[in-house]
Amino acid sequence: MHLQLEGKTALVTGSSRGIGEAIARTLAPEGAHVLVHGRQRARADAVAASIVASGGRATAIVGDLTRDEDVSRMLDHGLRAVGSIDILVNNAGGSAKSTQRWSNTHAGAWTEAFDRNVLAALRVTTAVLPAMRAARWGRIIFMSSTAATMPPARTPDYSASKAAMNAMVASLAKEVAEEGITVNAISPGTVKSDALEARFREVALEQGLVDEGAPWEAIERAALPLFAEVPMRRVGRLDEIAAAAAFLVSDMAGYITGVNLRVDGGQSPSL
Questions:
Q1: Which pLDDT belongs to residue 1?
Q2: Does the annotation mark 255 as catalytic?
């Protein structure tokens, strides 16, 4: 792609690994100076250094987005490095380590889920939005989930927080539509990661669907139907999510706002 992001700066939260890292690595070759964010200094530094070694521009920043003081400090650091933030990808968040079900869920878990997913994004967005409005140009993406519109029985706290995020996108998109700022959500479906591959392999072996040492393609084919109904019959790739984000932050997507772009291989049952 040639998305003409030269001169733009992009903050991708949670970009020291996973989807966020893939987005950071995609935006840098397009010309953006990327702020690589994480909670662990070593991870963020490693990703930023790798981008720079490949010819891109990147600066690592570290902070816990559930803490107001951390957000303020890390943004001060980032702004000293890049001057302004033109693009924000709210990717940090996720589900809790312990799976919540309706039989064991409690208010504290929901508070943590909303702080981790909704309020963390809110803290960063409200901090960078005034400068975007003054410049009359900006791109904001919220990384949502298909769980927001197709919630499973498990993890109701996570699904509810992502549904709230979609409502945030719709509201903010209307607020800033006349100011050159677009606001969109991306909802990945089942996407390959180290954790997903390990889980698929574990289940496939437990159920005797594959032999020990089976290649990923065989594991994917055997285990995917046990986890999700995906018409494409495969899981998504990190680069496919990153490409969607890169398009949405470019000028080519300047008339797209308030959209929830589902990158899920056809998993969603309706438009």
A1: 65
A2: no
